[in-house]
Protein: glutathione-specific gamma-glutamylcyclotransferase
Organism: Sinorhizobium fredii
Amino acid sequence: MPHRSRSFSLTSAHVAQVHRAVADSGPGPGMKLHTDADYDDWVARMTRSHPAPGSPTLLFAYGSLIWRPEIDHVGEEIGIARGWHRSFCFRMLRFRGTPEEPGLMMALDRGGQCRGVLYELPSDDLEGQLARLFRREFTYKPPNSMPRWIKVETAHGYVPALGFVMNRASPFYAGRLPLEAVAEVLARACGHVGSGAEYLLNTVTHLEARGIRDRNLWRLQALVAECIERSTTAPRVSSDAQGSR
């Protein structure tokens, strides 16, 4: 049954309160970046392991790929990835966070189910599309969001699709965090590409537009709005009072 439309608690005004100009700190100490040869290897590996050679290549989008796909597609439909769920389990020290104020990014983690969008990729220049996609989705070694073929349920049955799942062996894997803890992070963190609050609002807005409501994300956007409101109404301690401590 379709859900009834409700107003978001989190708004662009909240996002504006979190946003600030942040310089790109670059890769952290000891971090190794993927090279062109590494990306070429990933493209070859994923095309070679396609579960249904000759059939259309499908991409499962669950977050920012829905509102900023940056790749071509020739069709789309709603699908359910069973055995996976959206989770803010990926610590960010760059992009939407900083080493001083780490952020959290969403990834597919094991367990549950996730309703998202299946994009059919054009057959011409598939390797070029995947190369652009992989450069966008993972930067460091080992990859945090790993490309993997997963099964997605559609109205016509199960199909194989390319998804990006959390690498639990990554040092940036945050595990399963309480929504309240996630909200506190998203209400503060901001990097050179934007804030966690902006990322969350874009995601829930575009999911809602497609008739998809993730209960955890819906609760999370309300919690983030509350955190931002508390931070902007909290009384400030004067410099004189601070100096007397």
About this structure: The longest helix spans residues 215-233. The chain has one domain: 12-19+28-230.
